[in-house]
């Protein structure tokens, strides 16, 4: 599953504790995403790069789902 597919299927991502974590997640996600992108660019191993890319895609999907 690629990044676009993860974001397109964001409704299928099960979430817990959204009411209590929504504000915090929505406020920190842009900085966390930037940090993960820097990490991804530093990594040489394609498997590790892909894993970080999946985390970024999942974070973007959740952000679109709960942050508006």
Can you put this structure into words, describing what you see?
This protein has 68 residues and is mostly helical. The chain has helices at residues 3-8, 18-42, 46-66. Helix 2 packs antiparallel against helix 3 (46-66). The mean pLDDT is 90.
| Run of helices and strands | HHH
What percent strand? under 5%
Query: What percent of residues adopt helix (DSSP H or I)?
Result: over 70%
Q: How many helix segments?
A: 3
Can you lay out the helices and strands and say which pair or pack?
Blueprint: H1 3-8, H2 18-42, H3 46-66
Helix pairs in contact: 2-3
Give a brief outline of the structure.
This protein is mainly alpha-helical and 68 residues long. The chain is 76% helix and 0% strand.
What are the key terms here?
single chain; 68 residues; mainly alpha
